[in-house]
Amino acid sequence: MKGRGCWETASVRSFCSSGCLNKFKKDDSGDDEDGTASPADKSELHDTIKKLSLKLDDLSTCNELVAKHGVALQRSLSELDGLRIPCESGEKLKAVSERATLFRITSNAMINACRDFLELAETHSRKWQRALQYEQEQRIHLEETIEQLAKQHNSLERAFRSAPGRAANPTKSFSEGSLLTTKGEDSEEDEDTEYFDAMEDSTSFITVITEPKEDSRKAEGGTTGSVEWTSDNVLDSTSLVPQGPPKVKRRVRIPDKPNYSLNLWSIMKNCIGRELSKIPMPVNFNEPLSMLQRLTEDLEYHHLLDKAVHCTSSMEQMCLVAAFSVSSYSTTVHRIAKPFNPMLGETFELDRLDDMGLRSLCEQVSHHPPSAAHYVFSKHGWSLWQEITISSKFRGKYLSIMPLGSIHLEFQASGNHYVWRKSTSTVHNIIVGKLWIDQTGDVEIVNHKTKDRCQLKFLPYSYFSKEVARKVTGVVSDSQGKAHYVLSGSWDEQMECAKIVQSSPSSPSLDGKQKTVYQTLPAKLMWKKYPLPDNAENMYYFSELALTLNEHEEGVAPTDSRLRPDQRLMEKGHWDEANTEKQRLEEKQRVNRRRRLEACSRGCGAEEAEKEAEVYVPLWFEKRLDPVTGETACVYKGGYWEAKEKQDWHMCPNIF
User: Fold this and answer.
1) May I ask which residue range the UniProt record assigns to the signal sequence (predicted)?
2) Residue 16: what are its φ and ψ, rounded to 5°?
3) N or C: where does the chain have the smaller number of CB atoms within 10 Å of the terminal CB?
């Protein structure tokens, strides 16, 4: 009996020591990351089955030996039973014989169970291989189908553009509150877009053009008599582009964007519903500019505000301010990459008094939620300030970016103080198709001195709409609600304004809605987008100003975005090194936050300490109550340009 126990132990050890059973359990767990059966995996599976077969042969041999020796044992016991032995000894021999029979039966059962296990393993391995092969073929088929659909969609759009019945050069006119402009092939309509239903009531007014007359100002519904609608009017399109070469030669190109492939869905699938600023992203999704630099880019068409300084009419000035607010979106039409999230305390200066006549300073004043304060001073007689908090959500198919906060603009000579907010930006086709961006929503610009208002409407893009793509419309009204100007255009190309000489209600439509009909003078171009530099498609679609923002400059603060190492590495095309450096900077920022939390926890409770740790005291801005909006915002407190002149940066934190 001792021999039987040793044989069982040896058999089990021999079977388990091969590692085959553990290996097969591991294969059965379903934790295959690749999802496809590679040749190496198939070879390993065949080796495992082969080892199992060999072990089964060993067990079969052992079974034969057990059966042979069991028969011999029973024969010996039968012979002993035939001898004359005491009755008590005969009963013991009978018990030994029964145990030997049970041992043989148990051994046979074990052999049969092992044989069934091997057959089951072979059957399921073939099923798994077929299933994995099927999934691999389906994935390849799906990728080919999506690519074919995208090509067919693109060819249909091109065929639609070149259709004979479509006007090639529609004349510029105002109709249904829109400015009809031509769009060539450079508009690059989207290959795979998410379309909205056509908006039947996209505008609340209709415009009719009339020829200018000498007594047009006396017509019913005319604007203020101080406005002269002549060729030398300040709203005319002359001098749209600043004259004269810049005094300092700026760079006109950056290294081309490398062609790195990246599986977007593998990163974004775990980000649905989360705040975008809290998601660690590789630089592959970025452009080599920070959010502070993108905010400074709004000043590209600063000459609109320089012209607005000379307006004698607040209505005219409002038109130019509205055009300036729309122009800030013109660079975003192709810019679907994400700017770098600034580090807490990071700054960016734009000292361009010589050529642009202004000085601009941005500082990241909060990290969660991300918030940046901005102040601009122009020697031409205006100043602009804002605190923008970016709220963004990833919704699976699209990404919504909601800038929160007010933008203030003040003209020193007239005292006119304008306030407005930014529209919502939406990035479509995050997972499948060509990425494209749209601006939507209503923007109200208010002159808090005169109570004049401008209502701007950014219409969502619709493939089936008759309206021009990326359309913007607006009406400028005085404090009494009387309309004086109609604005129309597109946020990616140009804006025009037309003076209203008469207004009247239209006939009710079938649904009972009634629009206002504005009789206007011919429209005048206020703003037109600058052409992009050559090779812009390989330089992140940067404008001429954007190309200069990250150019190295001497004398800037040690917290300036130009000195950020991961951003600089990305600009040079070293993306792997940039990702490593980005992780280092983010970890350094987390360590600094933990230190602030530990310092605050010594004097107060855990919950209060966490709140205190989130509070950062800006270096160049301070919180003040805005008397106009009633909101608390960061306002420039001074001292930066004086510190730059002295090159005294001892107060700046070490964030890089």
Assistant:
1) none
2) -80, -30
3) N
Stretch among 332-341, 489-498, 588-597 having the lowest mean pLDDT: 588-597
Written as six digits, the tokens of 610 are 């966490």
- Going by C-alpha positions, the residue among 586, 642, 506 that lies closest to residue 203 is 506
Strand 424-428 versus strand 398-404 pairing type = antiparallel
Q: Phi, psi (5° rounding) for residue 479?
A: -65, -20
- Residue whose token pair is 């917290």: 559
d(CA 519, CA 210): 6
pTM of the model: 0.66
- How many angstroms separate the CA atoms of 65 and 57, rounded? 12
- Residue-level pLDDT at 16: 40
* Assigned token pair, 402: 């909601």
- Written as six digits, the tokens of 162 are 């070149």
Kindly report, residue by residue over 366-409, the tens digit of the pLDDT: 988 889 999 999 999 999 999 999 888 777 678 888 899 999 99
In this prediction, residues 223-237 reach a mean pLDDT of 46
β pairing state of 516-520 and 205-209: parallel
Distances, alpha carbon 20 to alpha carbons 26, 27, 149, 310, 367, in Å: 10, 10, 47, 87, 53
Q: Are strands 174-175 and 205-209 parallel, antiparallel or unpaired?
A: unpaired
Of 93-107, 354-368, 433-447, 489-503, which range is least confident? 93-107
Residue type, 3: G
CA 262 to centroid of chain Cα atoms: 15
Q: Residue 13 in 3-state DSSP?
A: helix
Output helix, strand, coil percentages for the chain, rounded to the nearest 5.
Answer: 40, 20, 40
Tally: H helices and E strands in the chain: 13, 22
Among 588, 528, 532, which Cα is nearest to 238's? 528
Q: How far apart are CA 519 and CA 503, in angstroms?
A: 6
The torsion of the CA quartet 40, 45, 51, 56, rounded to 10 degrees, works out to: -170
Helix axes 39-82, 20-28, angle to 10 degrees: 130
Tell me, rounded to whole angstroms, the distance of Cα 593 from its chain centroid. Answer: 25
Model pLDDT for residues 598-643, shown as the tens digit of each residue: 777 666 655 555 555 566 789 999 999 988 888 888 999 999 999 9
Which is it for the CA torsion 88, 90, 92, 94, positive or negative? negative
Q: How many residues does the chain have?
A: 656
Q: Is 226 helix (H, G, I), strand (E, B) or coil?
A: coil
User: From CA 367, how far away is CA 592, in angstroms rounded?
Assistant: 12
Query: Which structure tokens are listed for 70?
Result: 């069991």
**Cα(136)–Cα(115) distance, integer angstroms:** 32
Q: What is the signed CA dihedral for 585, 588, 590, 594, rounded to 10 degrees?
A: -170
Please report, for the chain, the start and end positions of each structural domain, with discontinuous segments joined by +.
Answer: 265-646
Most confident of 172-176, 185-189, 238-242, 268-272: 268-272
Helix (H, G, I), strand (E, B) or coil at 370: coil
Per the listing, tokens 């939620």 go with 369
Looking at 35-49, 88-102, 210-224, which range is the least confident one? 210-224
Torsion 173-175-181-184 (CA) sign: negative
Q: What letter would DSSP give residue 277?
A: G
* Fold annotation for 265-646: Porin (2.40.160)
Task: Give the whole-angstrom CA distance, residue 201 versus residue 196.
Answer: 14
Of the pLDDT bands very low, low, confident and very high (cuts 50, 70, 90), residue 232 is very low
Amino acid at 327: S
Q: How confident is the model at residue 319 (pLDDT cuts 50, 70, 90)?
A: very high
Query: What is the rounded distance in angstroms from the CA atom of residue 586 to the CA atom of residue 621?
Result: 23
